Structure formats: C-alpha cells, structure tokens
Amino acid sequence: IRANRVTIKEYLDLFRTDERELLSEAFEDPWRYFGSKSSVLATLKLTFNAIAAASPQAKELLSLMAFLDGDSIPKELLRNESDRAINTTRALGTLLSFSVIVPVPHKSSYQMHRIVQISVWDWLEENRQRLAYEEKALFLLNERFPSGEYETWKCCSVLLPHLEALLRYRD
Asked: How far is CA 74 from CA 18, 21, 24, 92, 106, in A?
C-alpha cells in the first residue's frame, strides 16, 4: 500500500481482481531468515504440506473447509457419519494447532480466513485436486441440506451460506 501509494479501498479493489498475484508477491521482513520464502502463498503452502504429513484427515477437512463459508463452519457439518468422533476432533485439533482455523466463540463452529481459503485453493490447484474438493463440498451440502419444509428452516439457514459460498467460488 505504501510503496504503490494506494488507498486501502484501492488495494481491496486490486485484491478482489488479482488476489493470487498479490498473495504471491514477495514482501520484505528484516527479521526473516536469509533465503526463507517471502510470500503469503509460499508460507501457507509449507503449512498445508506439514498438515497433510501430520494428518491425512486434517488435510481432508482443510481442503473441504476452503470451499465453505469461512465465517462459521459447523462442526457437525464436518463430521463424516462413518467416522469416529475422535478422528474428527483430532483432525480439527491439528488445524487449530497450525492456526488455519479458529473456533467461533459460544458456537460449535470454526472460522477460516479468506486468505487461508484462497491459499488452499491454489495449493489444491497445484496438486490437481481443486475440482475434486469442490465436488466433495457440493456433494456434502447436497447430502445434508434438508427438504426446505418449515420444520427444517433453521437447518437451512445454517447451511445456505455454505452453498452460496461454494457457488460463488465456482464462478
């Protein structure tokens, strides 16, 4: 912002159109070790690789969560019914320990920052897995979305932002 003498509004407009390029841009930090990666994307990709090595299930959740609405992702949406609850808890613990998600206070849900989501998309794209996880997210929402009858409106209101986000990301 300072180097290019742009306002925050101008920067945000640029970010909306060229987010990947801006996140790939090197930044100077006098405290960084010589030769270390210097872009947000490069740094986060190292984190994602470490998560994948530590826990394949955490990698699955991270990849899936990247296509949902990052403001409030319900824990119940993330639990695979054929899996044990302890496995989901451990996978979420891995993501929390790497600080790629944070718990939403007073709710059983999590937040994922938009920059993390964009970086996951890029990481998945590099590994030719982005489309597969978009489809997994769509399948999950289709499977969990209720009928729309009056009795299910509360559940619909929780899941609808995730469906809207997924459709927005696919454009």
From this structure: 30, 31, 30, 12, 12
SS3 content of the chain, % helix, strand, coil (to 5): 65, 5, 35
pLDDT in tens, 127-148: 999 999 999 999 999 999 888 8
CA distance 165 to 69: 5
Helix (H) and strand (E) counts in the chain: 8, 3
pTM (2 decimals)? 0.77
- CA dist 148 and 165 (Å) reads 19
User: What size, in residues, is the chain?
Assistant: 171
**Bridge-based pairing state of the strands 73-74 and 102-103:** unpaired
Q: Report how far residue 40's alpha carbon sits from residue 62's, in angstroms, rounded to the nearest whole number.
A: 17
Tokens of 134: 């978009």
Q: What is the pLDDT of residues 8-52, one digit of tens each?
A: 787 777 766 776 666 666 555 555 555 555 567 888 999 999 999
